[in-house]
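thread: overnight batch results

M.L. [08:02]
morning all. the overnight job finished for the chain we discussed friday. pasting input first so we're all looking at the same thing
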Amino acid sequence: MSRPTLQNIRGLADFATLYEWDLAFTAVPAGLTINTDDVNFRCLSSTVPKMATPSAPVNIRGHQVNYNTVATYDGTITLSFVETIDNKISLIGKAWRDLIWQPNTGKQASKADCQAEIILTRMDRSNNPIWAYKLIGCILTAYDPGGDFADSGDVVKPTFTLQYDMFIDGPPDQINASLPTS
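M.L. [08:03]
and the structure it wrote out:
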């Protein structure tokens, strides 16, 4: 294989960046109101969903070969937000947390009543979608309201830790037409 030339490198498409992305809630828990625009605008960062296909060694007459096993999802993403004085993120975090488990009564909601569906979309520099991750069965497992009070001059940065059952990824037009959520 020959080394790439400057002409080869100049011929590459524009590079995908880490700061051009979009967050959308396409299904929200029953009884919870989430304005996707408010959440997307305030979301500072998100981890990317991952899947691994581990292998298991198989020994056949003194030779070892690796055999792919069942794929597993990492199953957790973290969304970090910046809070504003209208408490939009804090209200969503508290409402979702209280929906899952009511602190005064100990009543728990069923998984079907407290799960969401989220689409994370990578964008190009012209804000056109280029790749999407559709997370199915997202449940809030931890809500950090934003750290400790301190004389640091920093803003409140709440985080949501979500577990998901599975995800599908691919070009955005294929993701929107794929797998039903029920």
